[in-house]
From TrEMBL:
Protein's name according to its UniProt entry: SusC/RagA family TonB-linked outer membrane protein
Stored Gene3D superfamilies: TonB-dependent receptor, plug domain
Domain of life: Bacteria
Domain TonB-dependent receptor plug: start-end pairs: 74-183
Location in or out of the cell: Cell outer membrane
Organism: Hymenobacter fodinae
Residues annotated as signal peptide: 1-19
A Pfam family: Plug
Length: 898
């Protein structure tokens, strides 16, 4: 558990001492550092959980807390932790979020961190979207390849007790062959001692697209089209009379985008005696999408009970159920609205949909008639028992069932006289059984001068998945044989682990671990891996020469080392490669990756002024081998291909007061560098826009450098090889889509009954390629509308510009710096103001108003600079396909405990 380094996240680090704890997201109570009483913000906090950062050997009572709220995806709130990047696939309701912890460490096409809920690895399966072909010809957004909602939708925020981010060498190595991308560990609520309490938390609000593209109106487009046609020696498509009557025409963004409502309601109860604790909660979420004909609804319920039976045996059980229903317009609907010609009306005078000479379907018809209706059901059920043989010696046994199903129907318009309608369906099932027995020992000797901890455990995961897809023309009742497909697989993962810890006099701590992991995905020769780890920690603040210091309240230093891999992430540890067929590519095949990874990290935690100022500084280096187990016809990797990654993380927390006003200010900052190396420097793997190649970062864009226009208004590109021409041979590295710097600033203020919470995030040092602007910024004036940038295009009377002249023949070869943009930005992710209306004992009522994604400071010209249209693929970060715009959200909420 990386607490420290990972901690960097909270800088508050007042982390003193003991056992490795992580950066955590925990519940409503507040007390975080030694100087802050639990009651300071608790009474009027509107939040449902907290992010807790603890460090090696820190007493459980000394934790640093960051609140997380229910109003936007949990992953995006993890940006408060140094070194965590959270990038949504798009702004669609329920969209997945790509989380990168300490940068990129894997070549996997779905390199998400490991999610662990109540101690069990879950959410490792991704349902694929129905696809008629397996070609590698064009870039497909992740939302066209995957059909999964964000899995954390299945666990309402109000049901979560804590969330921990594990990123250090020692912490992630404890998850072995599944820990290569870091670990997000979630603990759900299990009840507490006390009388029955009933809790309600709810909110309602509106969402509106935060930014819209600047596009040409109908008259401007008609002038561009005429100019392009004449420059290409064609006749003008629009007469002067038509141009004069066009005006603004159809604003397709206005027609497709709308203000949408969102609401969520959560009701729960908890309580218990000294021996029995219980918790039960139910949740309803409804969100109308900001894109026409899109929506999301979610129903969830969770129950948990734990009971102490006698002196030695504790039993517990929990079950969570959820159902998510979506309506999703075709992935290209929003991008189509940007490109569609504004001279075309939404509907013709006869009521039929208007269409252009280039495209038969206009954006409104596309959104209304081409869509899918996926329905996901998830169940997480767990039974656990703990038997204490002797004081300090106990046997833990946990069993878990995860079951997820998908039922989806696809609807398509008709391109014939037949009416459109249902055109396909697909069903899928994923099921995982997990068994985790563990023997744990903790011993204290000579008045706690010597503390020994040890454990031996085994983990067995048994998985099964099935899918079936059917395609047919609208109006058909059954598909033909060639349009039915299905697949299934079964796989197992096993791991055995020994861990030990020794602490001397509360000041010197040594920890070690050894795992042996196996995955049935690989052959017997490659199946098993040894994954060792170790960490040493010095709690210098407890030394006699510092205990009397009035300035230093804590000083800890640590050094960690550990191995992880990707072999156990079945369902995610794949790399897709093209299948050669002569001179063409006939499809895709999977390489299953092992990716052994070695990480070394070190850090320092410093508490000053009686823990009013707390600092954590961490550094790490990580080396990932890119060897894979090939399920294809030719070799791809060799053992010397590597991903090298290193970085620094800083967390700072200041606790202050001014009369009745009290506040906590936190800063988290991280710098990361990564590089791919291979002993075959001439080799590279190319996607549509990027390359993975020797001594370059992952997700490096390769293309031509734009050098403006010549005297005739034609585009010019740099001739890097000196052959007097500009073509693909002149392509050079143009920057990476992975950010180099991450910054987050959090502020919590409390004044009497009022609480203010804010989260400000920034990402810097990366590039974004916008596939929509790749067409909109080119003044060809035939197939697409144009961006506002084309108003400044070259003409004989406007030569002081870098925008080429309008013509059908203008060409931009692939990726160029004419389209590539900096993604640097600062975002006000959340701002919430809460007021405590009434409080008596443990009962209270509070109201709050807040907003998410309120503003973004950036020069980026797309919907949002923080988007990952390629999903969690580290080789295709920084691509924006404009599939769904992000929204600004304003909410009003109520919390009550009675």
């Amino acid at each position: 558990m990386v607490r420290l380094y990972s901690l960097s996240l909270l800088l508050t680090l007042s982390i003193p001492a003991l056992a490795q704890q992580p950066d955590t997201l925990a519940p409503r109570r507040l007390g975080v550092t030694i100087t802050l009483p639990d009651s300071l913000f608790a009474s009027n906090s509107f939040l449902s959980g907290r992010l807790v950062c603890t460090g090696p050997g820190v007493p459980i009572t000394q934790t640093v807390t960051y609140y997380f709220g229910p109003t936007f995806p949990l992953q995006e709130q993890l940006r408060q932790i140094a070194g965590v990047q959270a990038t949504p696939y798009s702004g669609a309701p329920g969209a997945q979020v790509a989380v990168r912890i300490r940068g990129a460490a894997s070549l996997s096409g779905n390199a998400q961190p490991l999610y662990v809920v109540d101690g069990i690895p879950v959410f490792q399966n991704t349902f694929g979207a129905p696809i008629r072909d397996n070609s590698m010809i064009n870039f497909r957004p992740a939302e066209a390849l995957e059909m999964d909602t964000n899995p954390l939708l299945s666990i309402p925020s109000e049901d979560i007790e804590t969330v921990e981010v594990l990123k250090g060498a020692w912490e992630t190595a404890r998850y072995g062959a599944q820990g290569v991308n870091g670990v997000i560990r979630i603990t759900t609520k299990r009840g507490r001692t006390g009388p029955l309490r009933v809790h309600y938390a709810g909110y309602g609000g509106v969402q509106k697209v935060r930014y819209r593209y600047n596009l040409l109106n109908a008259r401007e487009y008609a002038n561009l089209a005429n100019e392009a046609a004449l420059n290409a020696k064609f006749g003008a498509p629009y007469s002067p009379e038509q141009v004069a009557t066009f005006g603004k025409g159809t604003d397709w963004q206005d027609e497709l985008l709308r203000t949408a409502t969102v609401q969520e309601h959560h009701l729960s109860l908890d309580g218990g005696s000294a021996r029995t604790h219980y918790y039960a909660g139910t949740d309803y979420l409804n969100q109308k999408g900001t894109v026409l004909n899109s929506s999301l609804s979610r129903y969830a319920g969770r129950a948990a009970i734990q009971h102490q039976l006698g002196q030695h045996l504790k039993l517990q059980a929990a079950v969570g159920l959820s159902e998510t229903r979506q309506r999703i317009p075709a992935v290209g609907a929003a991008a189509n609205a940007l490109a569609y010609i504004p001279t075309v009306p939404v509907r013709n005078p006869d009521g039929s949909y208007g269409s252009s000479r280039q495209y038969s379907l206009n954006p409104v018809q596309w959104a209304q008639e081409s869509y899918t209706t996926p329905q996901h059901r998830r169940m997480l059920a767990q039974l656990g028992a703990r038997y204490e043989f002797l004081p300090g010696l106990a046997l833990d046994l946990r069993g878990n069932l995860e079951r997820a199903t998908l039922a989806n129907t696809t609807y398509s318009p008709s391109f014939t006289s037949t009416a459109g309608g249902q055109s396909g369906d697909n069903t899928a099932l994923y099921q995982q059984w997990v068994l985790n027995p563990a023997l744990r020992y903790t011993g204290h000797f000579k008045e706690d001068r010597h503390v020994v901890e040890a454990s031996a455990e085994a983990i067995y995961q048994k998985r099964r998945a099935e899918t079936e897809t059917r395609f047919y023309l609208p109006g058909q009742t059954q598909p033909d044989f060639f349009n039915i497909s299905g697949s299934s697989y079964a796989a197992n993962v096993a791991a055995y682990q020994l861990t030990t810890s020794y602490t001397l006099a509360g000041r010197y701590q040594v920890q070690g671990g050894l795992r042996r992991d196996a995955s049935s995905t690989f052959t017997a020769k490659d199946r098993w891996q040894w994954l060792p780890s170790a960490q040493v920690t010095w709690h210098a603040g407890k030394e006699a020469f510092l205990q009397s210091s009035s300035h230093i309240s804590q000083l800890d230093a640590w050094l960690g080392w550990g191995f992880t891999s990707d072999a156990g992430n079945i369902g995610r540890n794949f790399f897709q490669v093209p299948i050669p067929n002569g001179s063409n590519l006939s499809g895709r095949s999977n390489v299953f990756l092992r990716e052994p990874t070695q990480q070394l990290d070190a850090g320092l935690t410093l508490g000053l002024l009686r823990s009013q100022l707390n600092l954590t500084l961490g550094a790490y280096t990580r080396r990932t081998g890119a060897a894979g187990h090939l399920i294809a016809s030719s070799s791809l990797f060799n053992e010397t291909s590597q991903i090298l990654s290193s970085g620094l993380e800083l967390s700072v927390e200041g606790i202050w007061s001014a009369g009745p006003l009290r506040g906590t200010t936190r800063l988290a900052a991280a710098v990361n560098r990564n590089q791919f190396t291979t002993d075959r420097p001439d080799w590279f793997y190319a996607t549509d826009y990027q390359r993975t190649t020797h001594e370059q970062p992952l997700s490096t864009f390769y293309g031509l450098r734009y050098q403006g226009i010549d005297a005739q208004g034609a585009p010019k590109f740099q001739d890097t090889n000196g052959d007097a021409t500009s073509n693909f041979l002149d392509a050079v590295a143009l920057g990476s889509g992975l950010p180099r710097q991450l910054v987050s600033l959090g502020q919590h203020l409390a004044y009497r009954r009022v609480t203010l919470q804010a989260q400000l995030d920034g990402m810097f040092g990366y590039q974004v390629y916008n596939t929509a602007l790749a067409a909109l910024d080119v003044p060809e004036g035939y197939f697409n509308n144009g961006s506002g940038r084309l108003r400044n295009r070259w003409t004989p009377t406007n030569t002081n510009t870098d925008v080429p002249q309008a013509t059908y023949t203008v060409q931009f070869p692939g990726v160029t710096t004419y389209i590539l943009q900096s993604g640097n930005h600062v975002r006000l992710s959340s701002l919430t103001l809460a007021y405590n209306v009434w409080e008596k004992d443990s009962r209270n009522i509070s109201v709050w108003i807040g907003g998410n994604n309120l503003f973004v400071l950036s020069n980026y010209r797309g919907f949002d600079p923080n988007v990952s249209s390629a999903g969690s693929d580290n080789q295709q970060a920084g691509i924006d396909a404009s599939t769904y715009p992000t929204a600004r959200t304003i909410l009003l909420g109520l919390r009550a405990t009675l």
